[in-house]
Amino acid sequence: MVKLQDGSILPITRSATRTKGQAISHQSVTFESQGESVTWEDHHKWLIDYNAKVLDFIGKDPVIVLPVYRDGPCAEYNYPEEGLVAFRYRKKEWERIPTKELPQSFALNLLQSEPHELEHWPDPQSISITLDVKDRLQERYLGGPLQGASIASMTKYYSSLGPHDSCVTIRPPPDSKRDAARTLNFEALNNAKTIQATLEDVVTTPQKLTNEERYPKRGIWTGAGYLGNECKGIVERLEAMYEERNKLSTIAGYQFYLLNEAATNRQVQLPYVGDSMNRLMCDGNNIYALSRQNKSALIFYHFSNLGELKRVIKIALPDAEKIRNDLGWGDIWNVKLLNDELKVVLVDGGGNESDVLNRQQIYKVTLE
Predict the structure, then answer these.
(1) 150 close to 107: Cβ distance less than 8 angstroms
(2) Is pLDDT at 48 greater than 70 in this prediction?
(3) For residue range 268-303, what is the model confidence (pLDDT) as tens digits?
(4) H or E element in which residue 170 lies
(5) Backbone torsions φ then ψ of 76, nearest 5 degrees
C-alpha cells in the first residue's frame, strides 16, 4: 500500500532480484492507473543496494523517484546533483524527467526496509504490507530518510553522502566562483614560504595512557581528517575530493562546506599535493586547516569564516624523523593556536597503536 500526496491509498506489487551479495540486479513496481496495469522496471547496468523511494502522480501520470549514488550509477545518469532521478509514465512509456519538475508535496512513500525482515513474523506469506506494517518496519531502518520525508530532505541527504558516494562530490558541476577560489588556493600554496618550527621539548619517558586519554578529543573523524567540535555551526562537513583517472578513482584534494549562506565561497577546495589532511579548526571568525605532506612537513591554511583565504604557510618540523625508529610518521597528537603561535605535539603511540606514548616531540611555530 502506498499513500499518495492527495491522501488516497494505492495498492502496489513490488519485486526485487538480488545477488548473493544482496545487491539488487533488477526491481519492479506494478500498480493500476486509469484502468491499465503499469509496471516500472529498473535495469541498472550496475549492481546496487538501494530501491525506489517515491511513487506518486503528476496530474494523471505516474512518477517514480529513485536515489542515485556511487561511481557507476552516477555515471549512468550523468551525475545528478540532487542524488535523485525521476521517471514519468506518458504515452505508455517511462521517460526520465528533471527533478525540478517534481512537486514539493511529494514524499517518500515506498517501503524502505527489506521484505525479508518479514520472514520472522507469524505467517509472513499472508502479510499485506499496509501503512501500519511500514511504520513497524521503519522503526528498525537505519538507511537514510524515512516515510514521509520530503523531496527537499531526500535531496539534502543523497547529495551529501560523501566523496565516494554522492554524485555531486564525485563530479562537481562547474562553478566559476568556487573554481577561481580553488585556483587562488593552489597558487598561494605554490608561493607559500616555509617556516622552521622550534623543537621545544622531547619526552622519551613512556607515558601510560588511560582509555580516555588514548583517544584525544580532536573532534569528529570524517574520513578526511578531524573536524573540530568548535566548528559546529560554521562548517557543515569536511571530505576528500576524488577524480577518475584511467577508470580509477584517485584523490584530487580536500574540501569543506560552510553553513553560512552569505559566505563568499561556501565550498572551499584545497589542492592535493601528496598531503594527508589532519584537522580543521575554528575560533569563530577564522577557520584553520592543517595537513601533513610528509614526516617533516606541514601545510597550514588560514581562512575567514566566509571562506576567504588569508594565508598559507609551510612548516618544517626538525628532527621529525626521530619520532619513530621505523618508517612511520608518528601522530599529530595535539594542536593549539593562540595569538599566532602554533603548538604541535608529535607522538609515537596512542590511538589505535598502543596505550603508551613512547616518545613526544613538542614544537612551537610563530606564524607570520
Answers:
(1) yes
(2) no
(3) 999 999 999 999 999 989 999 999 999 999 999 999
(4) helix 167-170
(5) -60, -35
pLDDT tens-digit profile of 108-155?
988 765 544 555 555 544 456 666 666 655 555 556 788 889 999 999
Per the CB < 8 A criterion, the answer to whether 366 and 344 are in contact is no
pLDDT, position 55: 96
Alpha carbon 117 to its chain centroid, in Å, reads 28
Cβ pair 331, 350 in contact under 8 A? yes
Give me the DSSP letters along 189-222: HHTPPEEEPEEEEEE-S-EE--HHHHS----EE-
- State how far the Cα of 112 lies from the Cα of 53, in Å rounded to an integer: 7
- Beta strands per DSSP E along 24-154: 24-33, 36-42, 54-58, 61-67, 84-90, 93-97
* DSSP state for residue 165 in the 8-state scheme: T
Report the predicted TM-score, pTM, of the whole model to 2 decimal places: 0.68
Neighbours of 151 (CB within 10 A): 22
Mind giving me the DSSP string for 119-164? GGSSSGGG----HHHHHHHHTT--SS--TT-BHHHHHHHHTTS-TT
Task: Give me the phi and psi of 327, to 5 degrees please.
Answer: -85, 0
C-alpha–C-alpha distance, residues 251 and 315, integer Å? 23
d(CA 33, CA 38): 7
Query: How many helices and strands, by DSSP H and E, does the chain display?
Result: 6, 24
Q: How many residues does the chain have?
A: 368
- Beta strands 12-18 and 276-282, pairing class: unpaired
